[in-house]
User: Fold DUF397 domain-containing protein from Streptomyces prunicolor.
Amino acid sequence: MTGELALIAHIEEKQRHMSDIPNPDLRSFDLTTAIWRKASASGGEGSCVEVAQLPGGDRAVRDSKDPRRGFLRFTAAEWAAFRAGALGGHADYD
Assistant:
């Protein structure tokens, strides 16, 4: 599994548990002016995620195939932990 597919799986898992999060403000953020980026290594196969940087170092992540589905917001600490794991090979499931 590529890093992008692993991130999509992580996002879907987090979506399943969003109701367990006591702070509903994690999803209530206006992203109409957000600048969404895809990985430069993203191919045309459509399994991509887009990331937007938010104030305070937080990140929003959405599925590029269906951006209307919404986004997930990660705190700066969550994003740093995910990034460290991905760069350390923990997202490689081949």
User: Anything to note?
Assistant: Residues 1 and 93 are 5 Å apart (CA to CA).
